[in-house]
Amino acid sequence: MDNKTNNLYEFGSFRMDTKERVLFQDKEAIFLAPKVFDTLEFLVERNGKVVSKNELLDEVWADSFVEESNLTQNIYVLRKTLGKEFIETVPRRGYRFSSEVKILENGNGNSYASNESDEILIAKRTKTSAYLKEEVFEEDTETESVPAEKTEKSFFRFGKLQIGIVAGLLIAVLVGALGLLLWQRNFSASNDSILENVKLDNLTDTGNVQNFVISPDGQFLAFIRKDKTENDSIWIKDISTKKAIPIDLPKRFKPQSLDFSPDGKFIYFLHRPINSRGAEIYKTTRFGGDSDIVADDVWSQISVSPNGEEIAFYRFDREENQAQLIFYNVEEKSEKAVLTKEFPESFDRRSFPAWSADAKKIYSIIKSQVRGISKLAEIDVQTGKEKVIKTPKIRQFMSVVALPNGEDLIFTARERRKFPQIYKMKTMGGEFKRLTNDLNFYRKLSLSKDGKKLTALQKNAFSHIWFLPEASPEKAIQLTSGKNSRHGKQGIDILPDGRITFTSLDDFNRDIWTVNPKDKSKQQFTKQSNGINERPLVSNDGNYIYYNSAQGKTNDIKRIGISSGQIENIIETKTGNEIFPNTSPDGQTLYFIRRSKGKSAIYKRSLADGKETEIKTPKDFIIDSFLTVSPDGRFLAFRQADKQKRYEIAETETSPVEIGIISLEDDDFEPKTITVKTSQSQFRWSKTSDAIYFIKHTPKTSEIWKQEVFADVEPKKVIELEDTRIFHFKFADTGDLAISRGNHLDDVVLLTNFN
Known about the structure:
Elements: E1 8-11, E2 14-17, E3 22-25, E4 28-30, H1 34-45, E5 50-51, H2 53-60, H3 68-82, E6 87-90, E7 94-97, E8 102-104, H4 115-133, H5 135-141, E9 143-145, H6 160-187, H7 193-197, E10 199-202, E11 209-214, E12 220-225, E13 233-238, E14 243-246, E15 255-260, E16 266-271, E17 279-285, E18 288-298, E19 303-304, E20 310-317, E21 322-329, E22 334-342, E23 345-347, E24 354-355, E25 361-368, E26 374-380, E27 386-389, E28 394-402, E29 408-415, E30 421-426, E31 432-434, E32 441-447, E33 454-468, E34 477-478, E35 492-494, E36 500-504, E37 511-515, E38 522-524, E39 532-538, E40 544-550, E41 556-561, E42 567-571, E43 577-583, E44 589-596, E45 599-606, E46 612-614, E47 621-629, E48 635-642, E49 656-663, E50 672-677, E51 683-685, E52 691-697, E53 701-708, E54 716-722, E55 725-731, E56 737-752
C-alpha cells in the first residue's frame, strides 16, 4: 500500500494505525493477516464509497494472480473481527465501508498517541513483526531444531558471535528461499489455459456449511448449515436468484450427507443420531415434509446412481477392521457388498463413491488405515473388480466426480507439500491439470448432470496452542499462530518444566514440537519429509516423549529423549498399527492399542525386556480409539463400543460416547462403562484418578466437562469458550491448562468454464 500523510483512523470502538499496521479495539491490539489489513485499509480510506471487487483485487493483490474467493474470505474475516455492520455488500457493485471514520492527525495529542499506547504499540510490534510479514515465517525464526536421529552431530562448533552471524545469514537465505518455494508451489498462477478460463463464484458466505450437493439440472444448491441458535438445517438455494430457504424437517434430525434424486424432486440425507453408530438414510421432497427411512448402518457420505435405483456408500466394521462398498437397491430394499477392503486398507469415510454417467463404474478413494495417504480406484459395478488409477505426485485424495463424457475425472487432492486443490484428469490416469491455484483448501465436489457446473467445499481450518494460567479463560495466552496452521490437532501434552509438546502441520509435515508459555519459543523435536509423527505423550519421569510414527507401511511407536534429542524405535512391526502410547507411572511399562486384520486389542509391553502381553477386556467391548492410564497407574480408560447397546435418537447437539474402564491391578474389578456426550475421541483422567475430563461442543461454545467415574453424580462444566472449538487439552499438575483450539470456516463455491 502507498504511504499516506495520515495514518491514524478511528471508527466505532476501533483505531487503525496504517503505518504500524495494527488495529486496536480500545487499548487491545488486534492483529490481522497482511492482505486482510490491506483490504481494510483500502475500504476505510474510501469510506462511504462503493469499491468494486476488481478495484480491491487490483490494489491488494497487485503483484499476484488470485481468485475472487480470496477477497471474499478477507471480507468474511473483517466482518467477524469488526462486526457485520461495518462493511456493506452492494449487490452487483462491490463493498462499502459504511461506518463513520475519523482521521486523527499525527502529533495532535490524541489519547491514542499517549505514552501508554506507544508502549503497547512497540511491544506488540516487536512480538508480531514477522507474523505481519508472513505467518509461516514467524514460526521458523524462533525455531530450535533437535537432532532427528542418534547419529546426527552438532551443526557448527564456532563461538557465539560466529554462530549468530551464520545463523542470521542462514535464516535470511532460508526465509527467502522458502518464500519463493511456497509462492511457486502454492501461490503462483498456472500457465494452463483451463486454469486461466475457470470462473469461480461464492454460493455461500456464512462459513458454517457442513455438506452440500448441486441439483442435477444445476439450478439449485442444497446445503447443510450449522447454526448457533438452531439445530443443523438443510437449505435450498436458487443459484440464479441467490435466494435460500430452509426446508421443513423435524428438529430431531441431524443431517450430514446429501444427494438429489435424478429428477431433482427429492433429497436423500444422512441422519446420524449417535456419533459412534452407523447413520440412517432418509428421503424427503426438496421442500421438506414427511421423511421416510431408506437404509441404515451407513458410515460414509452417500451417492445416488444416475438412474435412481441404487445408493452407494461405505460401511465399516471396527471389530474386524474391515470396510465394504455397499449398493442399496431402493425399490427392492436390498443391499449387496460389492468390494471389501481388509486391514491395512480401507475406504475414505469422509468421501462418497462416485458413479460414472452410465452407472457402470464407481470411483472410490482407497485409504490406508496406517498412513495419511490414499489412492484413486475405478471399480466395475457388476463384478466389483478394482483398478487403481495411476496419479503421479498425488499423495492424498479428498473427493472425486466423473464428467458425463466418460473420459474425464475431477478430483480434490493434495500433492506433496501443497494445499488441497481441484484437478482434472483422464479416467486412465496420468497427467492432470489444475482448476484452482490459491491459498484455500478444497474438499467435497458435486457436479451437475451436464457436467458444466461444479461446486466445491472451500475450507479454511486452523488450530493453535493456548495457555490458560489457573485454567482461567480470562488469562488465556495464544502461543502459536499462522494461517491454515494445525497446531495440536493431533495431540498435546505438558513437559515437567512447563513446556507444551504438540503435533504441528507446519511446512506440510506432521511433526512433534514444543512451545514455552514463558517466552513463546518453539523447538522442533522430529523432522520428516515424507511421514507422520503425532500423538505425543510425555513419560512421567519427564525424560521422553513417546509418539506414533508412520514412515512406511505401518504405524509404529517411537520415543525421543527430551534432553538428548535421540530417537529410539520402541515398537516396530510389519503387520500391525500400534497407536495411542501410554506409560505406567514408574515408566517401566508401555500400554498401547494394536490394530491388525480382524482385531483391535490393548497390549502392554515391558520397556526393560520387550515382553508383550494382551490386556484382557470384556468380550462385548470393541476397542475403538484413544487410551489413557490413570495417574495412580490403577486403571485404563479407552473409547469403546458395546455390541449390544443401541441408543434412541438424541435431541442434543452432542451424541453419547462410551468410555470403557478396566483395572490394571484388581482382577475382581468389574469393568465399567461411562457414557459422556462428546464429539471428540480424546479425554483425560483427573489428577486424583477418580474422574474423567472430556470435550463437549455446542452451537455457540466449546467446553471441558468433568465426569466422576466411581460416584453416581451428574457431570460438571469446568471450562467454556465461545466461538471456537477445543481439539485437545491437558491440565498441568499446577492447575494450569494447555489447549489446542481453532475453527473451521467452510463455504461452497461454483466453478464454471472448466471444460
